[in-house]
UniProtKB/TrEMBL annotation, chain A:
A GO term for molecular function: mRNA 3'-UTR AU-rich region binding
Main localization of the protein described in the UniProt heading: cytoplasm
Xref: Pfam families: RNase_PH, RNase_PH_C
UniProt entry tagged with the keyword Cytoplasm: yes
Family: Belongs to the RNase PH family.
Protein keywords: Cytoplasm, Exosome
Coiled-coil regions, chain positions: none
CDD domains: RNase_PH_RRP42 (cd11367)
Gene3D superfamilies named among the record's database cross-references: GHMP Kinase, N-terminal domain (3.30.230.70)
Name of the protein: Ribosomal RNA-processing protein 42
TrEMBL record, chain B:
Subcellular location, record wording: Nucleus
Annotated Gene Ontology cellular component terms: cytoplasmic exosome (RNase complex); nuclear exosome (RNase complex)
Full protein name: S1 motif domain-containing protein
Entry similarity comment: Belongs to the RRP4 family.
Positions of the S1 motif domain: 250-330
Organism: Hibiscus syriacus (Rose of Sharon)
A Pfam family hit: S1_RRP4
Secretion signal, residue range per the UniProt entry: none
Subcellular location, principal: nucleus
GO BP: any one term: exonucleolytic trimming to generate mature 3'-end of 5.8S rRNA from tricistronic rRNA transcript (SSU-rRNA, 5.8S rRNA, LSU-rRNA)
InterPro entries: Exosome_RNA_bind1/RRP40/RRP4, KH_dom_type_1, KH_dom_type_1_sf, NA-bd_OB-fold, Peptidase_S8/S53_dom_sf, S1_domain, S1_RRP4
MF (Gene Ontology): RNA binding; serine-type endopeptidase activity
Length: 256, 481
């Protein structure tokens, strides 16, 4: 990210305190959001979300696997985010790994719930095919193509859209097998089952600049923040998780 | 590699790729089993029918981890460990194969195939183009078709990216199209279809003597473009201006730059040029205004004048022998810019004019159009007469600085700044040349129609501005006649 001079930083902070940001938004106004789904035909579900200059893609791939021995009635879901070097020069090589891990962990907590599975957006029991033997493994991948702030919100929106676009192929299980033998499965090419995404939350990040909070910060505004709070809310209005994060390490402001 | 300011690190790779340097590549690779060839920053390289994928591309695309699942299914049984991961060094790893795993796409094989259809769907998103091509060396394939294919694909990508990223309704689309057609018909240029891609022939009258400029080359007696861009003709000079061209400086240009480094007796500024420009300490007026030799103390206090990341306005003084730029900021109107915002547009939109400094009295704001595409919009600053400054005043100024830290720009002025900045953004999206009058007119249009500042970035206002401009130019044309 390009640096900002003292005068510019002052201007940004002044704007936020006067409720008129650099691109003339109010403090609580989002940038126009563009969502496209079904952009990757080879994946089971995909979506692209553009939030100003922030551009992210999410894709969902499903494949058959064996469920965890400790939880034989549940499928597996893995969420992984990758910050592409095209997004920002600092992501070159391994530079983006720290941010990627942080985003992946945050999204996993929001969408998959805590350790016990409480508050999950997706019900893993819906992914099982033959209990104990065959289940669906869902791999949700997020890719940050261009970064201009507010990655968490954009990624959560992309994942929600991608999951709503996902079609899990229908599986016909062959005759009953006994013991440890793997049952034969026939994956349908024609029929697909839609995923129930009503439980998947939406994440809203509030960044604090000076004494006010703003929503949907650009990367320039993020450089001025002292802290940020991300809240994920689902359709029923339940607050699933509150994540405190300091996405960009800014110096703590002196108490005025 | 560039540090700050390089907003697309793949640009150089594109240029190499599009310049048809296949002969160079062929000699480098030779005829033996292909080692990892030139990885042009993650873009796949193809020579003849050698394999070629930059292994860096694989992990960036979705689904890179499924490669090892598909291969044994097709071939039966595991192969060597290099197939276990997409990140091998033989160029076998293909994310295409992996996202393909489990689905079937026609005209592909387990080793990958020419996935035209699959790639075309996502071509408008990818900056990193990666193609998997037939690996079988027994088949003879000429390379040139592939180069032009790659060029076409990348140029279509570039064209799509330059397209307006606005959601337009059907009527808005039609209105915008009509406005653009009107503007094109009014344009004084003879050629209507001026954009070219690599290897396109440029329509030129070969009987006239003409000069071949940048971006063109003579191929088989024809004038052919070597970059993707727009053909420009000035008198007898024919050249192709690239779409992502950097700023081309001339002596005497006003530029706005950002300090990236404070070096010995000079500052380095980033101005969207191929190199950082240099502003010598001796080309800068001292704060106390006295003309004197710069001492070591002055050198130590350079940060007091300009620091890193400061926005500075200066003038191009001359070119160094190595091609880099030297700037000077001797007049009072040049110097540090504070209390405002910096906007970045394409350099070719800012044409040379009599004055680049505009003081919009009505709004009380300063508008500086840097020829390098950096435009500054900010509060008006009175240019101080440096000769009158003395010790007493300097202490006063330091007090003013402290006050500044507490007071912010008044709201009305800030609204004017935002409105002007949005006007610049709209004009830049539509591709109109930046002109102070045009910017003022756009601002007045928005305030007369009572459009909310934030709505200026919506599609309706873009269409209105385009229509207004088409009308204005047709009126001007009629007046001339």
């Amino acid at each position: 990210m390009v640096g900002l001079s003292v005068g510019e930083k002052h201007f940004i902070q002044g704007g936020i305190s006067q409720d008129l940001r650099l691109d003339c938004r109010k403090r609580l106004t989002y940038r126009p959001i563009y969502v496209e789904t079904g952009i990757i035909p080879q994946a089971h579900g995909s979506a692209r979300v553009r939030l100003g200059a922030t551009d992210v893609i999410a894709s969902v791939k499903a494949e058959l696997g064996k469920p965890n021995a400790l939880q034989p009635d549940k499928g597996k879901i893995a969420i992984f985010v990758d910050c592409s070097p095209t997004a920002a020069p600092m992501f070159e090589g391994r530079g983006g790994e720290e941010l990627s891990t942080e985003l992946s962990v945050a999204l996993e907590r929001c969408i998959l719930g805590g350790k016990s599975g409480a508050g999950a957006g997706i019900d893993p029991t819906s992914l099982v095919v033959v209990e104990g033997k065959v289940c669906w493994d869902l791999y949700v991948d997020g890719l940050v193509i261009s970064s201009d702030g507010n990655l968490l919100d954009a990624l959560a929106a992309a994942i929600k859209a991608a999951l709503s676009n996902t079609g899990i192929p229908k599986v016909d299980v062959a005759a009953e097998m006994t013991g440890d033998e793997q049952p034969e499965v026939n994956i349908s090419d024609e029929e697909f089952l839609q995923f129930d995404t009503s439980g998947i939350p939406v994440i809203v990040t509030l960044t604090k600049v000076g004494k006010q909070y703003i929503v949907d910060a650009t990367s320039e505004e993020e450089s001025q923040m002292t802290s940020a709070v991300s809240v994920s809310v689902n359709r029923k209005g339940h607050l699933i998780n509150k994540l405190d994060s300091e996405i960009a390490a800014a110096e703590a402001s002196e108490e005025e | 590699m560039k540090r700050l300011g390089s907003n697309n690190r793949y640009e150089d790779s594109y240029q190499i790729l599009l310049a048809n340097r296949e002969d160079e590549l062929e000699t480098k690779i030779g005829t033996g089993p292909p080692k990892m060839p030139l990885i042009l920053d993650g873009i796949a390289v193809v020579v003849g029918k050698h394999v070629l994928l930059g292994n860096k591309t694989n992990t960036d695309l979705i689904g890179g981890r499924y490669f090892n699942k598909c291969y044994p299914v097709i071939v039966g049984g595991k192969l060597n460990s290099s197939f276990d991961t997409p990140q091998d060094n033989d160029g076998h790893g293909t994310h295409i194969l992996s996202t393909d795993g489990g689905n079937s796409i026609a005209n592909t094989s387990g080793f990958g195939g020419l996935l035209w259809s699959g790639q075309v769907k996502i071509q408008d998103l990818l900056m990193v183009l990666s193609l998997t091509l037939l690996h079988d060396r027994s088949q003879l394939e000429p390379a040139p078709w592939l180069w032009s294919f790659l060029a076409k694909l990348s140029s279509t990508t570039i064209k799509k990216m330059r397209g307006l990223q606005l959601p337009l309704s059907q009527t808005q689309r039609i209105r915008l199209q009509r406005a653009f057609e009107k503007l094109q018909s009014l344009s004084s240029k003879a050629n209507s279809d001026a954009s070219v891609t690599v290897a396109d022939t440029i329509p030129v009258n070969y009987e006239d003597a003409f000069l071949k400029g940048h971006g063109t080359t003579d191929l088989n007696g024809e004038l052919v473009a070597t970059v993707c861009g727009v053909v420009e003709r000035i008198n007898k000079l024919v050249y192709v201006r690239g779409l992502r061209a950097r700023y081309k400086p001339e002596v005497g240009d006003i530029v706005v730059g950002r300090v990236v480094e404070v070096a010995q007796k000079r500052w380095r500024l980033e101005i969207n040029f191929s190199q950082d420009a240099v502003l010598m300490l001796s080309s800068m007026n001292m704060p106390d205004g006295i003309q004197r030799r710069r001492t070591a103390l002055d050198e130590l206090n350079m940060r007091g004048i300009f620091e890193e990341n400061d926005v500075v306005c200066a003038e191009v003084r001359n070119f160094q022998h190595d091609g880099s730029l030297q700037l000077q900021a001797r007049s009072q109107k040049y110097g540090k810019l504070e209390k405002g915002q910096l906007l970045i547009v394409d350099p070719y939109l800012v044409k040379k004019s009599k004055s680049h400094f505009h003081h919009l009295e009505h709004f009380g704001i300063d508008l500086i159009l840097g020829r390098n595409g950096f435009i500054w919009v900010g509060e008006h600053v009175e240019t101080r007469d440096s000769m009158a400054v003395d010790q007493a005043n300097s202490s006063e100024q330091s007090m003013v600085l402290e006050e500044k830290n507490q007071t912010h720009t008044p709201l009305e002025m800030r609204q004017n700044i935002c409105r002007t900045a949005n006007a610049v953004r709209v004009l830049s999206t539509l591709g109109f040349s930046m002109d102070a009058d045009l910017i003022m007119e756009t601002v007045e249009l928005s305030s007369s129609l009572k459009i909310d500042i934030h709505d200026m970035l919506g599609s309706e206002f873009h269409v209105l501005v385009a229509e207004r401009e088409a009308e204005r130019r047709s009126l001007m044309g009629k007046r001339r006649r």
